[in-house]
Design brief:
Distance between the termini: 46 Å
Structural class: mainly alpha
Shape: elongated
Number of helices: 11
Number of strands: 6
Radius of gyration: 26 Å
Number of domains: 3
């Protein structure tokens, strides 16, 4: 077994000599225990930050270390472009046809050259298709795309389902779930609300808590209805109307109704 296959050691390449601009003998290994807290990767544009992070994530996956990756830019989805057989036909759907034209090659011939280039590159670093296969076997790679159907869509309706009994039976956990859900909902309609002072937040939190404790799931439609006509007449010890007038509740309900009616929001409901 190569040294870089030891569990807990990430293979990042070889040491580099800036003076000669060439790799030096030996392996550059990183102890995964150094990443148990926080880390930051800093560098100029084009310096290799994304490549380094992808390498770290691949090494972690091979060692059965799971990762949740938040990627606004969209580069890290390249983790899914892994081809153990390194065949030109695997690369063909992902090449740029214009690049093939510039080389005066057919797309198929260009893809074959790309596959050969990757195969030679991996071999120069002591790797092959078998290690790619090991990566693919070690983890399931899923791409979630909130607000889009390009990958696996994320439905916000899951947030309105009754939590598990473990959460319902723990007042602190339930309070956290209610608070974060109410805050997230208000952020969706452009409101940055104080959980202790905002009547909007207090109203939503009470609607969520009351429904969940009754074992009732909520939808956006039922939420809009309950905002206008809450299932209680008091908030705290004061009358509901004194704390949050019907006019204010109608304005809040309209915000959610407009969100529901917006065509771009439909992907969030699938």
């Amino acid at each position: 077994m190569p040294d870089f296959e030891k569990l807990g050691v990430f293979y990042l390449g070889r040491p580099y000599d800036p003076a000669t601009k060439s790799a030096k003998p030996g392996l550059l290994l990183y102890d995964s225990k150094d990443l148990v807290t926080h880390a930051v990767c800093v560098g100029m544009t084009g310096s290799g930050k994304t490549g380094l992070c992808i390498g770290l994530l691949e090494e972690a996956a091979i060692d059965n270390i799971p990762a949740i990756i938040i990627d606004p830019k969209g580069d890290i989805a390249n983790l899914l472009l892994t081809f153990p057989d390194l065949r030109g036909s695997d690369f063909l759907p992902w090449i740029n046809p214009d690049d093939a034209k510039k080389k005066e090659l057919t797309p198929e011939a260009f893809a074959d050259k790309e596959a050969d280039k990757w195969k030679a590159g991996l071999e120069s670093w002591g790797q092959d298709g078998a290690r790619i296969a090991k990566l693919r076997e070690a983890a399931d790679f899923l791409v979630y795309t909130p607000g889009s159907t390009a990958g696996l869509p994320v439905s916000i309706l899951q947030s309105f389902s009754v939590p598990s009994s473990k959460i319902l039976e723990d007042a602190e956990l339930l309070g956290d779930r209610v608070g974060t859900t109410a805050t997230s909902l208000l952020n969706l309609v452009g409101l940055d609300a104080d959980p202790l002072q905002s009547p909007e937040h207090i109203l939503l939190a009470n609607i969520l808590k009351t429904s969940w404790e009754a074992g009732q799931d909520l939808t956006i439609s039922s939420l809009i209805q309950q905002i206008q006509t809450p299932p209680y007449s008091k908030l705290g010890v004061m009358d509901l109307e004194s704390v949050f007038s019907s006019k204010g509740r109608f304005a809040l309900a309209m915000r959610f109704n407009n969100l529901l009616g917006a065509p771009g929001f439909s992907a969030w409901l699938e």
